[in-house]
Design brief:
The protein is of the alpha+beta class. Helix content is 65%, strand content 16%. It contains 4 helices and 13 strands. The radius of gyration is 68 Å and the shape is elongated. The chain starts with a helix and ends with a strand. The relative contact order is 0.08.
Length: 441
Amino acid sequence: MRLIHLSTYIKMAQFGSMLVLLTYAASVLGVSSLLNKPAPEYFSSPTSSLYTHMQTSTSSSTVQRTVPNNALTNDATLLHQILTQETTLRIELERKVTGILKELEQVKKTQVEAKTEQDSLKNDITLLRNENKQLKDDLDTMKRQFGNNSLSSSKPAICTCEFSNITKELQSFKREIRYTSLTFLDLQRDVTNVQSAVKNLSISMEREKTNQASINTDISVYQKNISNAIKDRVDEEILNFTTRFFSLETQMTMLNTSLRNLEQVLPKVRHFMNDTRDLQQVLLRIQHEQVKISDELLDLKVKNNTVSSSKVAFSARISTLYTSKDGQTVVFNDIISNVGSGYNNQDGIFTTPVDGVYVFFCKITQDSNNHDMFYQFILNGSVKTQTLVFGRLDHTHRTSSNLIVLQLIHGDRVWIKMSSGGVHFSISTEGDQSFSGFLLK
């Protein structure tokens, strides 16, 4: 039972050692996850990978430091985050290292207990060997006594019985010795296993110490790199603050200079504002005078229209060779007179300037046409009269004229339209085509 208990205890110690290793690996991975970086390979290369990673992190932080900050608040927040992360990392590392030390102490206690148990087993083995030797001595003594008794005894039947009983006891004792030997061999194997386990445990402890030293070195390097990065960042921020302070001081100086210049210019500005107010008053008086003049001009214009309204007359003719088309408005381009400016020689239309009764006269002479020509008096697009100009090849230069009286209002339009056009006669630049009109009182 003691051997079984010892074997179970050794297995529990090995399991505890493995648990310590797993706990240590989990702590390393936990720290790496806090840093958002991959875990270093301590068993293959305890320092190089972490140191390389720290160099990369430091170089990346250097690159980041070259980027200008947009606001002081963002810089302070980033610095606070870096300090908080470092504090959290240190607390987590201390907690993990404390746990590992506790596990190491437990393993040491387990090793001491295993050694005590081993010493107890050795003592038991020694006692078994002594008992075995004592049994062998007793057996030899019994054999010698049995030999002496067989020579001197006179009662063979009794000796035979005693010898038979002794033989059975010896066989039983041999079986016990054989079982004891087997037990001793098993015990030796268990002791060997215990020694091997203790040796493996010692090797594991040495590895744990080596890994712990590597971890401490890496932590020191990492803390040093973090301290250097924080110091560089603080120095950079101090430099930026100093530069901004001097820049603000320069701007304050410029503002003070501008303020003094403004104070010197302020009297001139006030004088200018007074002059501007005087000019505004003058401008208001001028505007009042302009309003008065505009009213007077309007009155004069009304009077002029009133005077000129009793005098409306025009007369125009065609001064060039002219050929009209069907439906075309006849434009009498040469104005002889245009009292009241009612006739437009650009489109041939008379526009009524004032209300009244008007008289219109038109004369059309054709040249050599083999067809008749017709012209019409048009009032606002409505045909008022239509006049024939007779045309034959054997009777050329026929003339036709017409007169019409119309009641018009201001804005009415009157013009001559060729419902059937042709070639118009013109003997000279004075022409032989005319359109006239006047206001009839």
